[in-house]
Amino acid sequence: MAGFEVFYQTIRADLTSKNDLLVGCVHFQCIQRGLVGVGVGEQFTETDESSAGSQLMTNGWNQSQDTYVLRYINAKTKQKLLIKCVKVSDILIVSALIVSADSNGSSVTLQTNDYIADDYKTFGNAFVSGSVDSIAKKLDEEVFDKLWPKPTTATDESSLREPTRQRHDPLREPMPAYGPNYGGGLGYDPMYGGAQWPPPYGGADLDPL
C-alpha cells in the first residue's frame, strides 16, 4: 500500500496489539477512499458534518481492545460511514455501514495471525510476507467495493452498446460472374462503358451456348 509506511509511523507509538495494526490498515483504506475520521463511537453528532476531520487516527481509537468503533465522513459528499471492528478469539470482524435512509453494509473476517507478525512494532517485520497489499485487496473486495461499486468505464459502456462491426474481407466475397452479361448484374462495371469486367477471355470454352 503506497504511503502506508508514513502512516504507520504516526500510529506506531499507540500500537499495543496485532489487532491495533490491523484496524490501522482499515483506517488507511478509508482515507484512500476520500474519507476522514471525525470521532470514535457509534453516534454521529451535529458537528461531524461541519468538522474538517482528520486523516490521523482519532484520540482513543484503540482504548478498547475488544471492539473498535470509528466514525468517518466524506468531506465532499458529507456521506457518513461507521466502521466497527470486533475481536473474536484470533479473528477480527470488520463491519462497515453507510449511515443513510437505505443503509448499505458489508463485512469481512480477518485472521489476525495471517496478516500481522509478532514484531508488529517494527515496520519491516510487522506484516506476514506480502500481507500489506493482501489486506488492502481483501478490504477493497469484501468491504469498500461493495459499498461503492466501481463505475463502468465509457469504453466498456460503448462496447456493450455498439455491435461489433465485421471487417471487410475480400477473400470471403463471391467471385464475379463470368460469361455473357447484358445488364448491371455481377461483372457489370459502368466505368468500362457497361462492358463486363474483367473481360470474359476464354469464356467460350466455359460456355458452350
TrEMBL record:
GO annotation terms (biological process):
proteasome-mediated ubiquitin-dependent protein catabolic process
Q: Which UniProt keywords apply?
A: Proteasome
Give a yes or no for keyword Metal-binding in this entry.
no
Instruction: Give the matching InterPro entries.
Output: PI31-like (IPR045128), PI31_Prot_N (IPR021625)
Q: Where is this region: Disordered?
A: 150-180
From which domain of life does this come? Eukaryota
Describe the family membership recorded for this protein in Swiss-Prot or TrEMBL.
Answer: Belongs to the proteasome inhibitor PI31 family.
Q: Write down what this protein is called.
A: Proteasome inhibitor PI31 subunit
Q: Which organism is it from?
A: Oppiella nova
